[in-house]
Every structure is written in structure tokens, then in C-alpha cells.
Amino acid sequence: MALILSYLRNVLGFFLPNRSNNGLPGALSCYRQSDYVIQEKAKFVFYLSIILVFTMAALVLSTIYVQILIPVYGRPYLPVLAPQIVAFFVFLCCSVILSKGYYVAASYLMIISGLVAVWLVVVFDKSDAPGRLDTIFFAFAVLSMMPLISRRHSYGIFVFSLANILMVIALSVLFKDEMGLSTSSILSFLLDSVVSFVFLGLVGYNIFRINKRALDRADEDIRARREVEIALARSEKRYRELADLLPQSVFEADLSGRFLYVNKTGFALFGYTEEDLLQGAFMLDMIVPEERPAVIEGIRLVVAGKPSPGRDYTALRKDGSTFPVQIFTSAIVEDGKVMGVRGTVIDITQRKEYENALKRSEELFRTAIEFMPNAVTITDMDGKFLLVNQTFTQETGLEPHEVIGRTIDEVDISIDSEFKSTLQHRLSESGMVKNMELRFRNRLQQDVFLYYSSRVVQLLDRVAVLTSTVNVTERKRIELELEKYRDHLEMLVKERTEELATANEELISINEELHSQREELERTLEELRKTQKQLVQTEKMASLGVMASGVAHEINNPLNYIAGGVYAIDDYIKTNVGDHSKNLEPFIDAINTGVQRAAEIIRGLNRFGRQSNNADERCDVHAVINNCLSVLNIQLMNRIAVEKRYAVEDIFVRGNEGKLHQAIFNILSNSIQAIDGDGAIAIETMIVDGFVEIRIADSGCGINADSLSQIFDPFYTTKDPGKGTGLGLTITYDIIKEMLGTIEFDSKVGHGTTVTVRLPVMG
């Protein structure tokens, strides 16, 4: 049974108007987005096609019955029935075509098929004249639909009217004799029919024109109204979205207190859902029971038109939890009549917590001040007392009600005017004073001594002065007693001081003598340290010189033998083997070159090892550098490239040549040791403003900034234990300084080191 009812409901929904479908039957759902006129015309054509289907079915059956009764037929006559049957199926197809969205095609197909069926029946009908001609009335009925079916153009009404007039004329001319009508009867029929069709056409045209104007106007009104509704809906949506973005709850309720609208913040704040709102939620349900009468009274005042400031209530969530809120409300007035209330709900939980914390803090502050052992006061910038504690009352003898709201001049307290001016000056400059001594006379005419401290503070919404005083009256009394004892002691001390003065003069003379002896010892110790350092280095260089001279002497004799032997071999070859002398000459030259190179090294060792105390020697700078490179050649070979950029002229400086060798040797030795693996050393000399500048730049590891400031300190070294004493650069610095020169280091870790030595050039 339920299945049958569901089927019937679906069938009825197909034919009957549906509110959810804009008043259209289910068969015309495709016209849901069309304008109102098309929807109404589509409904008319749809229902008309259905009516015509049933009408044609009834007409076919009645025609069959009439044909059987009429003797001229005696049975069903197909030429007359066929157009009616075809029209039945065409009308049925029109309803299907219309449901597919082809409104114009279905309309005109209905009119054309109806007129064709009418005229075919008239032509093939064999009954008498009245029986044949009365069918023409169906043509009038069909044409009467034209004003309702025509969509935009009215010429269709005249076309169909003219076509029917032509059919009437043709029928009258062709079938006059067959129907047995006289000429006068035919003319009367034609006149009546033509006038009727013309009248029908004119009336139909004017109906169409009037309807079209009315419908166009109505369509414009509907379109404008729809645009207004759309704009209103968009505006409402925009304002609802804005309301949903507010951090406060926004609501609207009717006069019974039933909520009509709540924004998203309200739902989240109270824990309700939109379904709860649809089921019916009331304002009073959101407030704790004991405060609901106050809510009702507040709504009554708002409805009565009285202003309603924000009121604090205790709100009730859906889960039963409570929290403080502040509610602002106003009346909803439409056409001068109050329809409800709207308002905002602000969660003031955090504000209440701040207020409670402030109250607790204020109570704690008052308690702390009240029981402090020092007198504490708070005054405004005009000097009026805002707060005093018990200690202040005890020290001054004034009760709080006697001083609150009054200045210090208005109460019985006498303070020096100079102290007041000094206090005001310091507060205006720095905003605070500390431990100023203050003396005043209290109500009991007793002198009170205080240490006075104050500070300008921000107290809520005003600037105030916080003051604290320490009572030192008892201390002052003790100080006065001590002053008496101090005066007595001063007399005793004066006597004792005179006795000690003589002894003190003797001690001063002894102290001065000891001080001079100490200075002499310090100078002697410093000279001994310098002498010791020089002796160590001198002994070292002397040993190295002796060793270098001995090595040079021992190597020089074999070199002489080699040079003599090579000379003898060369002479023998030239004398006895002259043909081979040219072939052997390169080998002889190579041996001589090696001997000369060894001789240069020996000369360098002899000059490097030369020891002399003469500080006024003429020293060749380029020769000194070359000699040091010769001695260090074994460390340079095949590993470090040396680039020399000497000045064009020879450069001579005044000093000890041996010490200058030692200084340059130390610098070059450090550069070589700083290069791990392959590298390069660039040596450049130039004369600048009467000084020779010797620049030795290496590509070694460099020196960090901390070590660079300590490289001339004695015994400071960055080398591993056993690989350096830390005296090389110290001695070098002393040698350069002794020659009236300077030495500078420029180094960066990973980018090498550049040493610049400046010495005065001999004139």
C-alpha cells in the first residue's frame, strides 16, 4: 500500500504544481530558471495539451458513435477519424516536447496540428452542411489561443487568420454543390466567417499587444524586484558574515525572548548549535535563574524606549558552566512598533579576572603599606595626601581623617621651606630623591628626625608621589651623646698626636732613604735582565759564527782541490784530447758553477758568523739579505719560491753587520717555518723619505690578532715545545731599535704575514 501511495505521489508531483519547484509541475522543472511569463505560458500549454489529449480521445469516440448512427456512414469513417487520431498523438507529443524545454515548438505544433485536423475533418466529412460546417468552430477555438501562445511577434495571429479565411473561401467554392447550398447561403456564410476571422484576428492582436505590454511591465517589475531581493540577500549575507566575524556575540529576539538570530561567536560562547536555535532557544535560558528577573526588567525598559547601558549578568552555557558577561540591548522597531530586541553579549571573564587581581593587589598593597615599620604616604602632584599608614600616624600624632585630602601646610606639621624647595627641584629633575635628612616638629612639639625618600609614580590614571621615611630620632640622640665623647677623645688624641709627630718625622726620613735604595735596586735588576738576555744571544751567535767559520774553512779546502783538479783536467783535455774538448766543455762549466755556488755560500757563512761590537759599520742591505738566503737555501730548495724586488741603487745603513744579519735571518726563518708545504716569499726594498723599507711577505699560515700583539714579548712563542725559545723576534726588535729603525707586522690567519723594517739610510 505504501508503495502504491508513493507511486501516486510521484505521479501527482509530475502533473501538479510544486512549491519547491517555483510553482511548476514536476514535468516542467526545466523552466525553473526561466522568467515568470514563460513559466506561466508553459504551464498553460502543458495543461492545455493534457486537456486536448483527453478531449480528442472523447471526440474520436463520439465521432465513431455519430457515424454509426448516421445512415450516410453506417460505420466508422476513417478519413474523418484519422485527422482526429493524429491530433490526439500530436497533442500528446506536445506535452513531451514541452517538458524537454521546447516551449515555442510545442505551442506552434499544437496550433498547426489543431487547425489541420479541423480542416481535414471539414473536407472529408460527408454529413449535411450544418454537420460539416459546425466543425469550423474548432478553428475559432484554436485561433483564440494565439494571443496566449505568441511569444514576441504578433504577425502570426494575422497569418493564421488569413490562412483560415482562405480555407473558408476555398471550402465554399469547391464544396458548394456537394453540400447543396445556394449562392446566397454561401455568400452569407462567407461573409459571416470572414468577418468572424477578421474580428478574431484584430481582437487577438490587441489582446496580445495589451498582454505583451502588461507582461513586459510585469516582467520588468519582477526583474527589478528580483534584483532588489538579490541585492538584499547579498547585503544580508554580507552583514551576517560581518556579524559572524565580530568577537562579541550578536543576537536578535522577539518580544517573548525567543532568539531569531545569533552569530557564530554566540554559538561558540554559549555552546549551542543552529539546530538548537531552530528548535527554539530563549534569552532567559542563557542567564542563571537568580538574575532572570533583572533581565526581564532590563528588556521592559528597552521596549519602553528608555536607554539601556551595558548591564553585567552571569551567563549560563549549555553544559551548565557559568561566566560573567556584559549585555547591551536596543529595541527593534518596524513601522513605529517594537517587534523585539537586539543586542551584543561581551564575555568579561578576563576583565573580571583583571579586576579581581587588581583588588587583591590593592588589598595586598594597602596591607603591606599599613604594617610597614617606616612611615609611608602617597600624595598627588598638588601635595594633597591620598594615603597614610599607621607608622605615619604614630610619628606625627595625626589621624588619617585629619590629613587625607589636605596638604602638609594645612595640617599641624612644620617643615623647613628650604627643604621643600630642594625636594621640589630634585623631583622635577630626576623624579626621585633618596635619604634626604628632614627635621620637623610634631603635634606634641617634639623634634623628629627622618631620612626622607620619595619617587614620582603612576597611580592608576593619575601621577602621584610615593614617600617613605625612616625615623632616626633615636639615632640622632645617640649621635649627640657620641659627639660629647668625641670632643673629649679629640683632646686626648691631640696630646698623643703631638707625641707621635716627632717619631713620625724620623720614620719619614728613614722611609725616603729606603725608597731611594729600592729604586736603585730595581734599575740594577732591569740592567742585569737585559745583559743576561744579550749575553745568551751573543753566546749563541758566537757559537754559530765559530761553527759557520769552521765549516766554511773545512769546506773551502776541498773546494780548492776540486777547482784545481777541474783546471788540470780541462788543460789535459785541451792538450791531449782536443777533439773532445768541446763535447766535455758543458760538464766542466757545470762543475765550475757548482764550485762557485759553494764558494758564495761559504762567503755568506763567513759574513753571517762575523762577530764585532762595532755599531758604526757600513752595512750593504742587499748583500745581507742575499747572505741570509744563502744560509737558508737548503730550507727553500724545491719548496718555496723567493721573489726579489730590490731597489735599483745599492742601499747602505749604519749599524753592526752581524746583528743586522741576525735580525734578517730571524725574520726569514720565521717566514719559512710559517709555510707548510709549497709557498712563496716576496722581498722588496725601497727608499722612502730617507729610510729604507724592507718588506718580507710570505704565504704562510698567518698570525691571529691575539698573538700579533704579543710577538715581541720575551719567551712568547706559538711553536710546539722544543721548537722555539720565544727570543728571536724580541732580539730582532732590540737590534732594529738599536739601529734607530722600526719593525711592523701585518698578518691575517690563512692569508700570510708581511714584515716591514724601516732603517735610516747612510748619507
Main sheet attributes: strand count, strand direction, barrel closure? 6 strands, antiparallel
**Strand arrangement, major sheet:** 9-8-13-12-11-10
* Low-confidence residue ranges: none
Number of domains: 5
Gyration radius, in Å: 65 Å
Helix share bin: 55-70%
What is the SS-derived class?
A: alpha+beta
Mean pLDDT: 76
Strand content: 15-25%
The total count of strands amounts to 20
Total number of helices: 24
Shape: flat
In whole angstroms, the N-to-C terminal distance is 138 Å
Describe it for me?
A six-stranded antiparallel beta sheet has the order 9-8-13-12-11-10. The chain has a five-stranded antiparallel beta sheet with strand order 4-3-7-6-5. The protein is α+β, with helices and mostly antiparallel strands and 763 residues long. The chain contains 24 helices and 20 strands. Strand 6 (322-334) and strand 7 form a beta hairpin. It folds into five domains: 15-221, no CATH class; 246-347, Beta-Lactamase, CATH 3.30.450.20; 363-471, PAS domain (Beta-Lactamase, 2-Layer Sandwich); 495-594; 612-760, Histidine kinase-like ATPase, C-terminal domain (Heat Shock Protein 90, 2-Layer Sandwich), CATH 3.30.565.10.
Main attributes?
Beta-Lactamase, six-stranded antiparallel sheet, five-stranded antiparallel sheet, 763 residues
Task: Summarize the structure in short.
This protein is an alpha+beta fold. It is built from 24 helices and 20 strands. The chain has 5 domains: 15-221, no CATH class; 246-347, 2-Layer Sandwich (Beta-Lactamase), CATH 3.30.450; 363-471, Beta-Lactamase (2-Layer Sandwich), CATH 3.30.450.20; 495-594; 612-760, Heat Shock Protein 90 (2-Layer Sandwich), CATH 3.30.565.10.
